[in-house]
Amino acid sequence: MQAKGTYEESDITARLSKDLPTWRYEGGQLRRTYGTHGFKASVMVANAVAHLAEAAWHHPDITISFGKVEVAIESHDVGGITDRDFELAAKIEQVIMWQPGKEGGALTGTPENESIARYIKYNA
Ligand SMILES: C[C@H](O)[C@H](O)[C@H]1CNC2=NC(N)=NC(=O)C2=N1
Questions:
Q1: pTM for the whole thing?
Q2: Does the N-terminal or the C-terminal CB of the chain have fewer CB atoms within 10 Å?
Q3: Distance between terminal CA atoms of the chain?
Q4: Could you give the CA distance from residue 37 to residue 39 in angstroms, rounded to a whole number?
Q5: What Enzyme Commission number(s) appear in the record (predicted)?
Q6: What is the mean pLDDT of each run of 10 residues along the chain (124 residues)?
């Protein structure tokens, strides 16, 4: 018996494949691991995710490591995956993977060939 508003595993994996192919469904949560250059970078990514979570009032588990950050989301109140999880995951992906230098605007984005600037591993 599924809790109200939750998705079946087959629906979850189909929606991730379509809308969030860099995310996976594991351990009952939507999960994404972001590669980073070091620990300070991981803390900054975690802080950005934490801001989005608080603004959304929907909170993931965030694991901060040297060189990576894992984000894991589920809807605790219903014990499953709901639209809230997909919507927060999509916003996190949009924000963390934002590379303005690829948008043709005035912002250059983080220089990828300068070691002092290395931050997120966009192709990890
Ligand atoms: C009281 C309860 O914690 C709040 O309503 C919010 C806070 N953030 C939350 N985050 C998540 N992931 N699931 C929830 O059910 C949830 N509930």
A1: 0.96
A2: N
A3: 38
A4: 7
A5: 4.2.1.96
A6: 83 98 98 98 98 98 98 98 98 98 96 92 93
Res 99: pLDDT: 97
Residue 11: C-alpha distances to residues 8, 14, 15, 94 (Å): 5, 5, 6, 22
Please give the distance, rounded to the nearest whole angstrom, from the Cα atom of residue 75 to the centre of ligand 1: 7
Q: Show the domains of the chain with their CATH numbers.
A: 9-83 (3.30.1360.20)
Residue 122 CB partners (closer than 8 Å, separation 6+): 97, 99, 112
Amino acid at 2: Q
Closest residue (by CA) to atom 5 of ligand 1?
57
